[in-house]
Prior knowledge:
Layout: H1 2-21, E1 42-51, H2 57-67, H3 69-72, E2 79-86, E3 90-98, H4 102-112, E4 117-124, H5 128-145
Antiparallel strand pairs: 1-3, 1-4, 2-3
Amino acid sequence: MLKNILLLVLIMLGVAQMGFAQQPTTPEGPSTTATVVPEADSVLITVILKHQQDKNLPEIRRILEAQGFWDIFPPQDVRVVTWTLAMGLGHIITLQCPAGAVRRLNLALENGAWGAFDTEIYLTYDYQSVWQDYIERREDAKEDRN
């Protein structure tokens, strides 16, 4: 139960920070591309790569290298929005993905990460503007009551 609550809190923090993280960035590394995915044809996806407690870091690295994880993840047309490491949990990665690339993303995870990580994938959306609007309306309602 506590683990689920911690996971929920971490995801909420990641979503709250997405408003800042979604600014265009300069691509880095071999697996990113200069093409920015149009928002109308894309989805945000949060991937959690959970550490397998029976493996140490060198074992995980060997598996990832043997499976070519760093060559296939993220797929060419998928942009990393945020990549956070939560100690005791694993990697929390938010990706902007063209709707047509979801299958390629799934295959990259199945072919590259399985065996090294337990994977969880969630459709995600930026909640920050909704939250800010609610807080502003709530403050206005408090002022009206006084």
